[in-house]
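REQUEST
  id: r-88c1
  op: predict_structure
  target: TonB-dependent receptor
  payload:
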Amino acid sequence: MHLKTLALTTTALIAAFPALAQDETAQKTSTLDKIVITAGRSESAVSTLAQSVVVIDREQIEAASFGSTDPTDLISRLVPGFAPSNQTLSGASETFRGRSVLIMVDGVPRNTPLRDNSRILSMIDLNTIERIEVVNGSSSLYGAGATGGTINFITKRGVEEGIRTTITTQASAYTQDIGNSIAPSVSANVEGRIRQFDYFFSLSGDMTRKTYDGRGNEMPSDAMIGQGGSDRTRQGNMFTSLGYENESRRFGLSFDWTYLDQKPDWLTNYSSNPISPDFNSPYTGERLKEDSKYFTGTFTENDFIFGTLNVTAFYNSIRKQSLFNTLSAANSFVYGASNGSTVVSPYNQTILKSDRAGINATVNSDLDFIRDGAKITWGADYTYDHTTQERVDGAAVIAPMTQNQIGAFAQLEVPVTDRFTLQGGARFDQFYLDVEDFTRPSGIFLYNGFRVPLREVSVTGGSFTYNSPTYNIGGVFDLTEEAQAFANFSQGYSLADIGGFTRRAGANSVADICATYGSILAAYGCGTGAPNLNISYANIAPEPALVNTYEAGLRGDWGRFRGTASAYISTSDKGTSFDATTNSVSQQKEKIWGFDLTAEADATDRLKIGTVFAYVEGKYDANGDGKIDAGEYLPNNRIPNTYKINLYGEMRFMYDIMARAEVEYLSGRKQTSQHLPNVTLLHLGMSKDMGKSGKLSLGVRNVLDTYYVNPVASAVRGAEVPGLGRTVALTYRVTF
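RESPONSE
  id: r-88c1
  status: 200
  body:
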């Protein structure tokens, strides 16, 4: 059934693409010639890939950012399958084709799979990035996490002889209250080469102050409960990259340090509509903090006996502290001040600590003895992961976990004919998980307006093993020299937030609470059963979620016109969803389908126009009867928009002036009880290149100061969160 659906869709796509005449002078470099490394762990031209990909180069990063320093904002507008930005530090509900996304820097994952924390993408410093490679669909080539897609940030490195320094300064503000919102940003990059050595050093810092919606109302600091907002922050980034090349070999070292803190003035009122600052309740907790360090070493040998060898070793020291929050209808479970107490603990905020280290070896071997152009990419990975999460007073809130992962993979590519290339591969991962015994702290559960005290629960850990074999197969057919049709089947998997399940031990739902506490909570309707305050991890352990993706599409570059269109279906028997109304996590059967389109045309030699379009919808087995019924749509925090459209134009004027305009439309969603409204936004940007004197840029986001409800932020907890009002950013960059 899946193949029939995709075959019909592919036929429609082929018919829809125009038979455009070639224009040899329109573009010197075809987009199909772009080289990416993320799709297959080896260098491949876009035209040879059986998946749909998006490559965002440095020129696009600068032109389309409109003064925003958040990668999420940029990617959400240029990548069709990625959800719109929720406009906070968190990546909550920012799904990729309705599923999870693997985020990497130079091929090293930044996710924390044992305890999912979505504050990743917004922490990456765009000043250090040369390009962004995005691969759509599920994949397991880099391990767990890429059930919806993969985003890989490729960092800069020194290229030219001598020293090259770039200084960037920026001031941004909300026009509703410039005086209280104006905020500075500055960065300095130094790069160059000295014979065989190359270096790149970057230091940046920025801050934010008050933020406002389109009506001039001050925005809340913590709209999504503990995860932070976009106001009152201080951030610093330091990045260093060193390289040495000697004939066929290259050695590389890099260090990346991200520090951020946020100190709200007020708690957040989650009962107001929309969510707003609670000006009657000063914030009393500790700051939100990010203090993460990433070390990476690389080695490349182009004359390896089996081809080209790439080895990457890494160590990630990740520290993420959340904000203090209180009990509310939107946050129905918090930690108590003492065992059996209904008073919220003053330490009701946590610190996630994740130490991850590993080594990856990849070999690219030619197989010309099979057929000219045939090749295989193969290798092995090892990852060590130790993850804990504690309250700020040191009490563990999840079972401390240590996991060792060993993976092996192979990816084969064979040109079957001059016009058809077959690709396929497999990966096998073996996991060894140790879960320590721990005591889940006492909590308070809000049930029908009553504060229900939940006593401590003991969780017995243990040692567990599991594995995940995954496969993929695809093909590319050259329709002409300018266009290809492609199709693929791929599998990816995620580890289903193991820590999240232990954090909710005995309190994952009303039924779970009654089964755990029994007669202790008889007054609240739990019956007279014997309580069971000792739980084994083996009884609550989630299973890895295996996702199957079927995709077919077209892409082409006819000089003045270029584009990619693809349709997909993804299925899973163990998909994971969070229910905001009950504060619970569950696994069930799922099916998601959608369509992605990117198209761009050179209307004239000076004017470029384009569009990014995405449609996605999905259902799941909501009632647990083993089948997906009509009306069982996935919650909004998985799919916050049914479709989105971004229309843009870029004009180059005389005197090195460039202007860009975008119209962004988000459909919202009305498939669940929470109806998310649609929104249309206008963004404008202009820059003047002054040669040696630098470059001056002006960016205006939400030009019309439209008041709207942010559908992605509102989907996280089922409460309306306003979107950001008009923002103006003035940027000056000089290189010498």
